Every structure is written in structure tokens, then in C-alpha cells.
Amino acid sequence: MSIWMKQIRWLVFLSGLIFLASCSFSGAKNACPKGDVVYLGDIEDVEVINMSCISKDGILRIFVEVENTKKSERTLAYRFDWLNEEGLLLGDEEAWKPVYFYSKEIKTIRSTAPNWLATDAKFLIKE
Amino acid sequence: MLKTAYFPLVALLMVVSVIVGCSKSVRYGDPKGVETVTIEFGSTDLQSIAEQMTRSILTSPLVVEGKRPLITVQDVENLTSEYIDTRGITDSIRTELARSGVVRFVVDEDAMAQQISELDRQADDEYYDQEVAAPKGEMVGAAYRLEGNIRSIVKQNSDIRDVYYKVNLQVWDIRTGILEWSDETEIRKVLE
Fold it and tell me: For the segment B146-161, what is each residue's pLDDT rounded down to a tens digit?
């Protein structure tokens, strides 16, 4: 193999790496300041894969990727606790909301803060 | 002879144990917990709908920080086959939006009679100091109208009952008739 061919292959490999890196950066969302996850009770075979926050027009929006690692469908319940800058709970607790999962499904749960004072959120999930 | 003597006592014990076994106890529950007592529209459905719709309005262009638009609320129309207190949905949405402080609400159709009655009462100079009484003709009309409906599709066979609810809400600009915001949410409940 000529030296030119080797250099071209090396260049192609490098550009591929740069492309992949740029893709992963463009898809990244901001991490929530603390973004605590609380699993309540005896809950098994469920995993919070990612929790990201975006502030748009001053209102915090949150995206939580939850995976049902069980081989069967199930219904879980979740809620968010919205916290202010001091880490104190804003307003009343939210209602628990049921969410249905197929076997091995990854679902993104979205929510929006109740007002402009929320700067962080805690995600609570239970059976 | 001895066995016969014990018979009433044994019978009494059996009756007492049946009564105690059948009695129900009362306990407090979580008002925000998931409620699945029956398949009918319940507290979890009402809370989920109100929360989802409120948060959707909060992220709409209608709500701009500091502007605080005036809204009047009309009842959500119940187009399902079951009884649903739809006023509960609009009340919850209104309360949560009011808590957020980003919008203000004016007297709606249902509360208008009480508002007029109060203005009439204060206009009586025999009892009220007219210097501080609320004068007539100064009420402010809403810029937007919130309305909506709830529909359901019910299917069942001998083994399963499936209920699907769809709630649609809209905010209309009263002056122009333009639809400023609309969103819908769905709920499916299955009884097996």
C-alpha cells in the first residue's frame, strides 16, 4: 500500500471521529443542576437513564429517559418536585401520574415547571 | 353433656369473629396518589389533565412574563356518556394558573350573578359609604376565553372494558376570534 493511500485512510478515519463527536455534542442537553432521582418503595427493573433540563423563556423544562428493564409490560407512577434556588419545594406536591411501559421500553417523560421560580427538579418514581 | 354446655359459647365466638372479620376500617389516603378504584373518570385523571394543560399554557406564546393577560373561563363540555364534574377540571386549571401568577382571571358567566348582586348591594347608599363603594361600570372584560371539551370512547366485551378519554382545550382571542392556543391530552384505562 502506498504512503498516499495510508494517509487518505487515516484522514477518512479522523473525519469520521470528528463527525461522530459533533453529532453527540449537538444532541446533548443541559444537565439539571442537581437532578435527583428518587425510587420509592420496592421498585425493581426500572432505570432512569438520563435527566436533562432546558430553560426556555425563563421556564424550566425537564426530560427524563426511563427504561423498563423488565420483560413484561407494566404501569409505574411518577411525579416531579420543583425546587427553587434555595433547594426548597415550590408550592404543593404534584399528583402522581401513571405511565405505561411496554416490555424493555425506554420512554421520555417531559414536564414543565409550574412557574419561573423553579431552577431544579427532583424526579420520583414508584411501582 | 359437657359438649352441649359449650355449644352456645362456641356459636357466640363464631358470630363475633364473623362480625369482626367483615368490619371495614377507615384510613387517610394520599389525595395525590394514583386512584384506580373503578374505571370511571377519577381524581388522578382530573389532576393529570389539569396539570398537563396548565403547563402547556405556561409554555405558550400567550403567556409572556409581565404581561399577565386577562382570561375568562367557560366550563369544559362533557361529551362523554358518564357524569363528569367538568367544573372541577376548569377550577383546577384556573387555580394552578392563578398560582403561577402569569395570568389573571375575570368573572366568568357562572359567577356573574353574584358579582352584579354585590355591586347592587354596595350601590345602596343607605348602608354603604359611596366614597369607597365599588362603582358600577368599571369591570374589565377578558381579552381571552378558555373553553374545551372531554370525549370518550368506550369498548367492552365479556372480559375487558376499555375507556379512552380525550380532553381538548382552547384559548380564543375574544376581540379577533383568533385561536391563540390549543392542546389535548389522552387517557386510556382498561378494566380486565
Answer: 999 999 999 999 999 9
Going by pLDDT thresholds of 50, 70 and 90, the confidence category of residue B60 is: confident
* A114/B55 Cβ within 8 A: yes
Q: How many independent structural domains does chain A possess? A: 2
**Structural contact between residues A121 and A32, judged by C-beta atoms closer than 8 angstroms:** yes
Q: Is A20 in the same domain as A72?
A: no
Domains, in order of start, for chain B = 37-106+141-192 (3.40.50.10610), 109-138 (no CATH)
> Region A83-95: what's the mean pLDDT?
91
Residue A113 identity (one-letter amino acid) = A
Is the pLDDT score of A26 beyond 50? no
| Minimal Cβ distance to A95: which of B51, B58, B100 | B51
Nearest residue on chain B to A61, alpha-carbon basis: B59
Pairing of strands A74-83, B144-156: unpaired
Q: From the candidates B59, B164, B186, B188, which should be mutated to test the interface with A, based on the most A CB atoms within 10 A?
A: B59
Distance, CA of B107 to chain centre: 18
